[in-house]
Amino acid sequence: MAIYTRTGDAGTTALFTGQRVSKTHPRVEAYGTLDELNAALSLCVCATLNTQHRELLEAIQLQIFWLSAELASESEQPAPGRRYISTEEIAALETAIDVAMGRVEPVHSFILPGRCEAASRLHFARTLARRAERRLVELAAEVTVRQVLLRYINRLSDCLYALARAEDHDARQNKIIQEVARRYLASADASSVTESAGPLTFQELHQLTRAAISRAGALGVPVVISIVDANGTESIAWRMPDALLVSSELAPKKAWTAVAMKTATHELAAAVQPGAPLYGLESHMQGKVITFGGGFPLWREGVLVGGIGISGGSVEQDMDIAQAAVAAINVRTHQ
Known about the structure:
Shape: rod-shaped
Radius of gyration: 30 Å
Oligomer: single chain
Number of domains: 2
C-alpha cells in the first residue's frame, strides 16, 4: 500500500475532524513541532546511559503523541477514551527534575550545551520543546487550548535541561573513575617489577621531618608537615609554632593525594581543568583531593613507599620545603 495520497500536494492537510487546513496553520505548526521533538527524543533514548532517564523519555514520547493528537482535533476537550495530558504527567516531570537537579552542583549562569553525546542530544531536544511551547502559545491566542498543555510543555523543557545536566555529571564522574583507575593500574604494573624496596623507616621519617623543619626555618615560614605510608595512612604529623590552623587540614590532604594519585599535587592542576581528563575530580572527592603544590609521592626503586605534604607558605614555598625534605633520604618524587 502506498504511503502517499497526493491530497497534500496543494499545501493543505487534514485534521482529525476531516477539515482541511493550510500546512502553515498554527495548529499544524504546533503539532508538527511536537513531531520534531519526538524524533529528537528518540535519539536521546538511544544515547542516554541512565536506565531511569530512558524509561522517562520513552514515557514522554507517548505523551507527545497524546498531545499532538489533541492539537490535531478542533475539540476543546479530549475525546472520551483517548489518553490525554493531565496534572499527573506534570507531577512526574517535576519529580524527575528534582531528582536530577539534586545530583548536580548548582550553577548561577548560562552553561554551554552538553559535554557528552546524551547531554548534547537532550539539550537539543530542550530547544525543540521551547519552540513547541512558542507554537502552542501562538495557537492558544487563536483557539482554546487547555491550560494544562501549556504547563506541561513548559515543564518538559525544564525536565530535559535537568536530565542533560545529570547525564553530563554522570559522564564526567565515569571519566574520572576510568582515568584514576588507568593511572593506578599503570603505576601498579610498574611497581610490581621491583619488590625490594621497603617502607620508610623510623630514621627516614625523622630525617624527612627534620629536613623540612630546617628548610622552613631558613625561609621563615612555619608549616605543617604530614608524611603518610604507601596506603595513605598518616605516619607523621608535625605542626611548627605559629603555623596556620588551616595547614593542619591541608598538609595531610596533600600527602594523601600524592599517594592516592601517585602524582605530585601541583601536576594535577592542569588535569582538573574543564575538558581535561580529571575535570570534576575535586568535587567528586568532596574536597579530599588537593590540586595545588606541596604534596609529593615518595618512590624507591620504582615502588611507592609513601607521600609528604607541606602546608603553611605559598605554593612555591611549600614545594621548596617538601623537595628539600625529600633530598635528605634515598627516595624520589617520580617513579
